[in-house]
C-alpha cells in the first residue's frame, strides 16, 4: 500500500495483560500509536476503593512497569501512547509517568484526560434500572461512578502532540478511534467512517484475542507458538479500511477465523454495537486474506451515536469467601461429596448461616455445574465452597469449616486453600452528555 | 440423508459477557455447513438445552456472509460477575457447552 496508513498497535487488552508483547511492538512495530486498554466493568470500582485508602493511588498498578518497558522506544520512534490506565486517578497516573520519564532521562509531554468521574452526580434518588430501585432503597454503599467517554474526550489531548495520553473511563474502541479521527480529520458526525474506525478498535481492544489468543482448540484449531503470541497491530487507511496483522517472528496467527471470532466478541446485535461515538454496524464486514497473518477488514459502517452515556456505578459488595480441599484415589468423588454435605450442614446449623453456599466438585462438575448433572469417574477431585456475605466473620467461618476437613472430614483429604476478598458490585445507569465536563491538562517532564 | 455430529467437528465458538448476559458466536469452518447449523441451533434449542444455567430468553443474530451466528443469552451468568459464585463467573467456558451439541448435517 503506497497510500497513507496509520499504524496502530495494542500493548494491553486487560489490566493484567502481558508486558513483553508491548515492548516488542514499541521497538519494531514502526507504530504511530500504541494503545493500552486496561479497564473492565469492575476495575474502576476497585480503583476508587484504593484511592479512598490512599489519595495517590487508584490508577492501574502496572502503569509504571508497562511504561518502563516501552517509553524509551516510543519516544525514539515517534509513537504516541494512549491508555486508560489512569482508572480512578488519571492525575496521579500522570505524575507517575512524569517521574518515571525523569528517571529514564526522557523529556515527555503527558496529556491527562478527565471528566469521566460522575460520582457526585449519584444521589440516594438515582434509579438503578437493573434492580428497579433507587440507590437509597438499595442500601448499597457508593464507591464511585464513571461515564464511558468517547473519542471526543481524547481529541483535544492529541492536538497538543503529547508522547502519552492518560485517561480514566473511555470506551475501549474509542481509545483507538480517537487517534484515527485526529490523524485523518474525521468529523464526529461522519457515522459511517466512525463505524469503520470503531470496528478496528473493537478488533484490537482485547490484544491477542485477534492474533491467536483465546482461540486454540487442538486438534481442530492450531495456533503456532502460542506461548509467545504477538499482540496485533492495524494499518488503517483514511476510509477506515484496515489490515490487521502482527509482527513477524512472534507466535500466534491472524486468520479470517480469529478476526471473525473477535468481531462479535461481547457484541449483541452486530447491526447496533453501541459506543459513545457511534452506533456501529458490523453486519456487512468483509474479511480478506492479504498474506500470512495479514487480514484486510472493510465494510463496517455506522449510524448516529446513542443519546446518553453509559455510566458504571460501583458499590461496596461485601466479601467473597472461597475455600478448596482435595480428594484423590478410589472413592474420591464419594468422599468429596460427603465433605461438601458436612460443610453445608455445619454452616447452616452450627453457624446459622443464611447465605447461599455454592459447592463444586472440580473435576466432576464445576464450571457447568448448573447446566449438566453428570457423574464423572474421576480419581482426583477438588471440593470448592464459595459464598458472598457482608459479614466478615461468616466469611471466615466458611474457610474454617473447609479447613477443619483436615482432621474431621472424610479420609485422605488434603490441599486446603482459602481466601476472603472484599468485592465490589456495579450497576449501569445512563447520563446526559451535557452533564459531563471534559477536562484536559498537559504535564511536562 | 443427514448425519449427526458434535458441533465442534464443524464449527468454532467464542464466548463474551456483559453484565448478566452471555454472548456466544458460532462460526462454520466450511460455508457449506452454515445452513445446517442455522437450522439446528435455534434460539429455542439453546434456551431449552440448559434451563438451569440459561434462565432468560435467547436472541440469535445471523451473519450469513461470514457464516456465523451470534447468540445473546439473557440471565445466563447467575447475576453476572457481581453476584455469581461460579468459578468461571464470566461464563468463558460456555462456548464449549454449545460445541458439544449434536447437529444434523447433510454432508461432512
Keywords:
heterodimer, A: 445 residues, Alpha-Beta Plaits, 28% strand, globular, B: Alpha-Beta Plaits, 3 helices, 18% helix, 33% strand
Provide a descriptive summary of the structure in words.
The complex is a heterodimer of chains A (445) and B (108). Chain A is of the alpha+beta class and 445 residues long. Chain A has 12 helices and 20 strands. In chain A, the strands form 4 sheets. In chain A, strands 13-14-10-9-1-2-3-8-4-20 form a 10-stranded mixed β-sheet, with helices on both faces. In chain A, helix 7 packs across helix 8. Chain B is α+β, with helices and mostly antiparallel strands and 108 residues long. In chain B, 18% of the residues lie in helices and 33% in strands. In chain B, strand 4 and strand 5 form a beta hairpin. The longest helix of chain B is centred in the middle third of the chain and has 7 residues. The chains are: A alpha+beta (445), B alpha+beta (108). Chains A and B meet through helix 9, strand 17, strand 18 and strand 19 of A and strand 2, strand 3, strand 4 and strand 5 of B.
Short description:
Chain A has 445 residues and is an alpha+beta fold. Chain A contains twelve helices and 20 strands. Chain A folds into two domains: 247 residues, no CATH class; 113 residues, Alpha-Beta Plaits (2-Layer Sandwich), CATH 3.30.70.100.
N-to-C CA distance of chain B: 11 Å
Shape of chain B: elongated
Using the coordinates shown, work out and report the CATH topology of chain B: Alpha-Beta Plaits
Q: Which range best describes the helical content of chain B: under 10%, 10-25%, 25-40%, 40-55%, 55-70% or over 70%?
A: 10-25%
Count of strand segments of chain A? 20
**Can you tell me the overall shape of chain A?**
globular
Task: Please tell me how large the radius of gyration of chain B is.
Answer: 14 Å
**In percent, how much strand structure appears in the residues of chain A?**
25-35%
In order across it, which strands form the biggest sheet of chain A?
13-14-10-9-1-2-3-8-4-20
Number of domains of chain B: 1
> Helix- and strand-based class of chain B?
alpha+beta
Poorly predicted runs of chain A: none
Strand % of chain B is 25-35%
Along the chain, the helix and strand elements of chain B come as EEEHHEEHE
Amino acid at each position: 500500500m503506497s497510500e497513507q496508513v496509520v499504524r496502530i498497535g495494542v500493548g494491553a487488552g486487560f489490566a493484567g495483560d502481558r508486558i513483553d508483547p508491548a515492548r516488542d511492538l514499541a521497538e519494531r512495530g514502526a507504530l504511530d500509536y500504541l494503545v493500552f486498554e486496561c479497564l473492565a466493568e469492575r476495575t474502576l470500582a476497585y480503583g476508587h476503593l484504593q484511592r479512598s485508602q490512599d489519595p495517590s493511588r487508584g490508577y492501574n498498578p502496572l502503569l509504571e512497569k508497562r511504561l518502563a518497558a516501552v517509553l524509551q522506544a516510543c519516544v525514539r520512534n515517534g509513537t504516541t501512547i494512549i491508555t486508560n490506565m489512569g482508572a480512578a486517578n488519571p492525575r496521579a497516573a500522570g505524575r507517575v509517568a512524569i517521574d518515571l520519564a525523569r528517571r529514564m532521562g526522557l523529556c515527555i509531554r503527558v496529556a491527562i484526560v478527565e471528566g469521566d468521574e460522575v460520582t457526585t452526580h449519584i444521589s440516594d434518588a438515582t434509579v438503578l434500572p437493573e434492580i428497579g430501585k433507587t440507590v437509597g432503597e438499595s442500601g448499597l454503599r457508593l464507591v464511585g461512578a464513571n461515564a464511558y467517554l468517547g473519542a471526543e474526550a481524547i481529541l483535544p489531548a492529541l492536538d497538543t502532540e503529547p508522547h502519552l495520553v492518560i485517561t480514566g473511563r473511555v470506551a475501549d474502541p474509542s481509545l483507538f478511534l480517537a487517534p484515527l479521527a485526529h490523524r485523518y480529520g474525521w468529523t464526529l458526525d461522519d457515522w459511517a467512517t466512525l463505524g469503520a474506525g470503531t470496528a478496528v478498535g473493537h478488533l484490537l481492544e482485547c490484544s491477542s484475542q485477534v492474533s491467536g489468543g483465546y482461540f486454540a482448540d487442538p486438534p481442530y484449531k492450531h495456533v503456532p507458538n502460542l506461548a509467545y503470541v504477538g499482540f496485533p497491530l492495524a494499518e488503517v487507511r483514511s476510509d477506515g479500511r484496515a489490515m490487521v496483522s502482527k509482527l513477524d517472528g512472534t507466535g500466534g496467527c491472524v486468520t479470517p477465523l480469529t478476526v471473525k471470532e473477535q468481531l462479535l466478541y461481547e457484541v449483541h446485535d452486530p447491526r447496533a454495537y453501541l459506543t459513545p461515538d457511534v452506533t456501529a454496524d458490523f453486519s456487512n464486514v468483509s474479511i480478506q486474506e492479504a498474506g500470512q497473518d495479514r487480514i484486510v477488514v472493510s465494510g463496517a459502517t455506522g449510524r448516529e451515536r446513542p443519546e446518553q452515556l453509559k455510566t458504571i456505578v460501583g458499590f461496596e459488595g461485601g466479601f467473597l469467601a472461597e475455600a478448596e480441599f482435595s480428594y484423590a484415589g478410589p472413592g474420591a468423588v464419594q468422599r468429596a461429596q460427603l465433605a461438601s454435605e458436612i460443610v453445608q450442614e455445619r454452616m447452616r446449623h452450627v453457624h446459622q448461616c443464611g447465605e447461599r453456599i455454592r459447592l463444586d466438585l472440580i473435576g466432576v462438575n464445576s464450571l457447568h455445574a448448573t447446566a449438566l448433572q453428570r457423574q464423572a469417574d474421576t480419581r482426583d477431585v477438588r471440593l470448592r465452597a464459595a459464598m458472598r456475605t457482608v459479614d466478615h466473620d461468616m466469611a471466615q467461618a466458611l474457610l474454617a469449616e473447609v479447613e477443619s476437613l483436615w482432621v474431621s472430614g472424610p479420609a485422605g483429604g488434603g490441599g486446603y486453600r482459602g481466601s476472603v476478598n472484599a468485592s465490589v458490585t456495579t450497576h449501569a445507569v445512563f447520563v446526559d452528555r451535557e452533564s459531563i465536563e471534559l477536562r484536559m491538562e498537559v504535564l511536562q517532564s | 440423508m443427514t448425519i449427526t455430529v458434535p458441533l465442534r467437528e464443524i464449527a468454532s465458538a467464542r464466548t463474551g459477557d456483559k453484565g448478566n448476559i452471555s454472548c456466544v458466536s458460532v462460526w462454520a469452518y466450511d460455508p457449506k455447513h452454515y445452513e445446517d447449523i442455522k437450522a439446528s441451533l435455534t434460539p429455542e434449542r439453546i434456551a431449552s438445552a440448559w434451563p438451569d444455567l440459561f434462565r432468560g430468553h435467547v436472541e440469535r443474530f445471523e451473519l450469513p456472509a461470514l457464516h456465523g451466528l451470534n447468540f445473546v443469552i439473557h440471565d445466563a451468568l447467575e447475576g453476572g460477575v457481581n453476584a455469581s459464585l461460579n468459578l468461571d463467573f464470566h461464563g468463558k467456558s460456555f462456548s464449549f457447552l454449545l460445541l458439544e451439541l449434536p447437529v444434523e448435517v447433510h454432508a461432512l
